[in-house]
Amino acid sequence: MHNALVFLKEQTKDGLLSWRAQDTTAKLFDISHAAVEWLALQNGILPARYQRNRSMIGVEDQLRLFQSRVAVIGCGGLGGYVLEELARLGVGQIVAIDPDIFEEHNLNRQILSTPASLGQPKVAVAAERLAQVNPAVTVTPIEDAFCLTNGFELLAGVSIAVDALDSIPYRLQLAEVCTLAGIPMVHGAIGGWYGHVATQFPGETTVQNIYRHWVAGKGIEQQLGNPSFTPAVVASLEVAEVCKVLLGKGEPLRNRKLSIDLLEMEMHEISYAEVPVKLVNAA
Fold first, then answer.
1. What's the CA gap between 190 and 193, in Å, rounded?
2. Which of 89, 128, 135, 211 is the most buried (most CB within 10 A)?
3. Other beta carbons within 10 Å of 5
4. Is there a contact between 139 and 127 (Cβ–Cβ < 8 Å)?
5. In angstroms, rounded to a whole number, what is the distance separating the alpha carbons of residues 244 and 238?
């Protein structure tokens, strides 16, 4: 690795390492693009792809993002945008979890879906897309449904989990697993013109409080559907929350929900008192 580092330093201009130099290094020294990016960031060299980040995310923060492992549960409307933005942000390890395949009704809003991808597993398409977007990112595709039974295994080693589910029962299970595993969770939900975002840390019950009056059914998304823009907006807010939590910057949406109304173009913050909530029985 010493020779690779010497070569990297020779290729660096104004503290930036071009993609061509990264790619050449990987091929010349027979190492992965992830290894090249780690070597660069560890030595204060910023890959040029992140140069527009550096006024708000310096090299040390970029290294922290690269060393983070984020799980995205659900790779459809919300999840597709979340995955794309995390990869472009430079999160080094991404776990993509979804049991489904792409269907024709996904084409109106799910950024990973194309006519060519119909019938293909969403996680496989996600892994292929992210490899094209940022080859330094390691993607672990898991074609399985998240539940209490496998939740702890799927989230092993994860820094934070992103809820991109369309099922209230499963997101409540995700909230419980995250709490028991000591993992922060960013929650997002969409329906028609509307959506909301919240961030929950272990020991908090914001998500459970949001759905405390839920009785049955998958949620309002099934009634209202979703246009192309709602998942893009809410997913971007989720990624912003993930970035803040990973870097310890700003004020996450803890104990509160940001409610988004794109029809009237309004946003409202709703606070949730932390009251005891009975968790799902994990046994």
1. 8
2. 89
3. 17
4. yes
5. 10
For CA atoms 36, 39, 45, 46, the dihedral sign is positive
> How many of the other CB atoms lie within 10 Å of CB of 268?
10
CATH entry 3.40.50.720 includes domain 68-271: yes
Q: What is the CA radius of gyration of the chain?
A: 19
Q: Residue 11 in contact with residue 36, Cβ under 8 Å? A: no
Domain boundaries, the chain: 2-57, 68-271
Tens digit of pLDDT at every position of the chain (283 positions)? 889 999 999 999 999 999 999 999 999 999 999 999 999 999 999 999 999 999 999 999 999 999 999 999 999 999 999 999 999 999 999 999 999 999 999 999 999 999 999 999 999 999 999 999 999 999 999 999 999 999 999 999 999 999 999 999 999 999 999 999 999 999 999 999 999 999 999 999 999 999 998 876 655 666 778 999 999 999 999 999 999 999 999 999 999 999 999 999 999 999 986 554 444 443 3
Q: What is the H or E stretch that residue 41 is in?
A: helix 33-42
- Gap between the Cα atoms of 103 and 146, Å rounded: 20
Q: Cα–Cα distance between 123 and 125 in angstroms, integer?
A: 5
Q: Is 99 exposed, middle or buried (0-12, 13-18, 19+ CB in 10 A)?
A: middle
**122-133 helix and 77-89 helix, angle to the nearest 10 degrees:** 30
User: Helices in 218-267 by DSSP H: which ranges?
Assistant: 221-224, 229-247
